[in-house]
Structures are given as structure tokens and as C-alpha cells.
């Protein structure tokens, strides 16, 4: 419910008691999202329209949730204000100059990369992105003691998430080769934790 825009059966309450337990399965969600994008990239179409469709599927499946969060993070991170004001900016539904610029750059970069990479690449990226979320929740303190972020950080189960991610990426590594997967893991780790600690 927090990673895609796809409707799930059952009442909202069933998923709200200990949301941190679901973090262990975030890489599985990444595998599904990346698989949908990979299916489009494998289609026999010219590179540019194929990349545009793949990006549309990627943003559509997730409902633009991550793009919205990325823009909020940039607005808060680059604002020359104190921590309390930065947290207020994170909650502001309006987009500032940093957020809009960063959002456009992000989409352009993803589009450009999707014209050049193999279908395996978005699968690896989606799995690692969700795994990096579990690392941030496990090792970086929540911005507030209450709220949605704090409830997710109560029981992140990053170890289980790591096992799930290793299994998924191991299968991909057997297909695409180990070096690209290992490099992607290193980059995801180096990016996830510094950003998380910087914002809090």
C-alpha cells in the first residue's frame, strides 16, 4: 500500500498494526515493479518510445509516490533553514524550485538511461531501492518520535529484507553477470545511509 498505487484486498486496518514488519518484503515489491518495466523494455519497439513507455509504467505503477517524495526531500534538504523548519517543508504539499528542478532532472535521467540499459537494469534498481529503504529505517533515526516514519522504524527487519534482496539479485546475477549487480549494491548502500542521516 505504501510502495505502489495498485489496490490491495482487505481493509486498511489489517496492514496498519505493525507496518515495520512489511519492510522485509519491500524487495519483492521492487522485483514486481522492475519486472513490469523490464517487460516493456524487452518489447520490439524503437529505443525512444520504448523508454518513454517504460518510464510511464514505472511512474504509473508506483503512482508517482517516489517522485513526490524525492521532490519533498530536495526542497527540505537544500533549504537554508533549521531542522524544525526543514521538517515543516517535508510536510508542505507545495513544490519549491529545488523539488521541481530535481524532479525534472530525475525523469530526464531515467528516460535517458532506459534508452541504453538492458531490461535487467530496472529490476536491479527497483529491488535495491526497496532494500536501501530497509537500511535507512534500520540504522537512521526517524525524523520524529511519532508519525508514519516512526511506526515503520519500530521493526524494520532489515536482515530479512537483505536475505530477500540477495535471493532476488542472486538470480539476476546468474542471468546478467555478478559485476553489475555487485556494483549496484555498493552504490545503493553508499547513497542510502548518508542521505537518511543528513535529513534527520
- The overall number of domains is 2
Going by helix content, strand content and strand pairing, the class is: mainly alpha
Low-confidence stretches: none
The total of beta strands comes to: 0
Please state the average pLDDT score: 76
Q: H/E order of the elements?
A: HHHHHHHHH
Which of globular, elongated, flat, extended, rod-shaped describes the shape? globular
The proportion of residues forming helix, as a percent range, comes to 55-70%
* Beta strand %: under 5%
Radius of gyration: 17 Å
Q: Biggest β-sheet, characterized?
A: none
- Cα end-to-end separation: 25 Å
Q: Could you explain the architecture of this structure?
A:
By secondary structure, the chain is mainly alpha-helical. The protein is 70% helix and 0% strand. It is globular and about 50 Å long. The model has no long low-confidence stretch (mean pLDDT 76).
Features:
200 residues, mainly alpha, 2 domains, 70% helix, 0% strand
How are the SSEs ordered, and which strands pair?
Layout: H1 26-41, H2 47-62, H3 65-77, H4 83-91, H5 97-114, H6 120-139, H7 148-153, H8 158-176, H9 178-199
Helix pairs in contact: 1-2, 1-6, 1-8, 2-5, 3-4, 3-5, 6-8, 6-9, 8-9
